Amino acid sequence: MNIIKIKTELIYRGMKEEDCDFLIKLAKKKKISIGRAFFIYARKYYAWSSALLLAVIFSSLHDGFAFFVGNLFFCLAIAMISLLFSPFVKVLLWSIKIQVFLIRK
After folding, report:
1. Are 42 and 95 a contacting pair, CB within 8 Å?
2. What is the gyration radius of the CA atoms in the chain, in angstroms?
3. Could you give the CA distance from residue 1 to residue 95 in angstroms, rounded to a whole number?
4. Separation of alpha carbons 92 and 82, rounded Å
5. Which of 4, 8, 71, 93 has its CA 20 to 30 A from that of 25?
6. How far apart are alpha carbons 15 and 35 in whole angstroms?
7. In this structure, what are the phi and psi dihedrals at residue 27, rounded to the nearest 5 degrees?
């Protein structure tokens, strides 16, 4: 796909123009795909989400399965509440949507 078309599509999906330029330059400089460059660009969101999920899992495993399930439901409720108030979760979901778009291209 043409770089201009990808840039236009990324801007349409909510990415700033300077971020698109940075992403394209990063992909060209490292000679990787734009999808992989976006993953490098957005890895902080994926890393923090994974760290939080692993913290919940490992902190509640030693107390039994019932506590683990209760803790997991509690954390899911907190995550849903934070979805309404936190820009971090919105950016994470947005980055996953962009990543899925870039995988298809």
Report:
1. yes
2. 17
3. 20
4. 12
5. 93
6. 14
7. -65, -40
Q: Are the C-beta atoms of 61 and 68 separated by less than 8 Å?
A: yes
Helix, strand, coil: what percent of the chain each, to 5? 90, 0, 10
Cα separation, 53 vs 92, whole angstroms: 14
- Residue 33's pLDDT is 84
- pLDDT means over runs of 10, the chain (105 residues): 81 83 87 83 75 78 81 78 69 79 75
What is the C-alpha to C-alpha distance for residues 101 and 105, in angstroms, rounded to an integer?
Answer: 7
Distance CA 9, CA 79 (A): 29
Q: Is the whole-model pTM more than 0.85?
A: no
